[in-house]
Amino acid sequence: MKESQAVVQRVRRLDKNYQRIEIAIDSSLQTIKPGNALLARPKSMRQDRLWHPYLRTVWWPVDLKNQLVVVDRPTSERFEPGDVIDIIAPIGQPYRFRRSLHNVLLIAYDTDPSCLLLNIPWLVKNNIGVTLVLLGRAREYPFQSLPPQVEIALGEDDDKMLEWQSQVTSIGNADQAFVAVAPADEMASFQEIWTVFLKRRNDIGKNYLFGVFQNLLPCGVGACDACMIPTKDGFKLACVDGPAFDLATLPFIS
Ligand code: FES
What we know:
Rossmann fold; Elongation Factor Tu (Ef-tu), domain 3; 15 strands; globular
């Protein structure tokens, strides 16, 4: 992990809520993998609206191409080519995929799916089937920007928010599943997701269903304990041990 400067190369609006920015990063960060995040702080004065008490925000790469990192950001933030971003990266551990993998299920529940999307280029390249399920507020994500090989499933309306049409087959066929939920109450939302999976599978073993935690990361290096996650093996840190934790190892899950 190191601090470096990145430069915005291109900004493209995806829809009224999202823009896609491509940033040139330090060559030492070319090894970023799915699961790694960036701690970012724009240096431009025009980015004053991005200030928050921890100074840096977590950015999830959604693609890597030609030595550029691609990130989706809300359109409420303003970027222009040439803007300089102060970056600390890589943060966290890469996602741990099984060796034998045919289908992967990605679920975003009431949250922006960005933390799951860097998986997609790698999975598609390796001919692994990918289904992305967008539930609740995640349905607003402009999924048309994703590769055509990705199967998209949209959740039902509010009172059936955790249901989608192909739920039985997509959960049944998945060799592994990675889930992101609204950061406001991740534990409660992961419990809801766990219950949905339990209805569809007799048994949820280890190394199958992962929750991706999207904590605020004040330090990102394991120094402040602000991102502690309780597990059956004691407390872990989202910034060092995460962001993905096997839901079967969390104490509240039953
Ligand atoms: S953000 Fe400080 S320990 Fe994780």
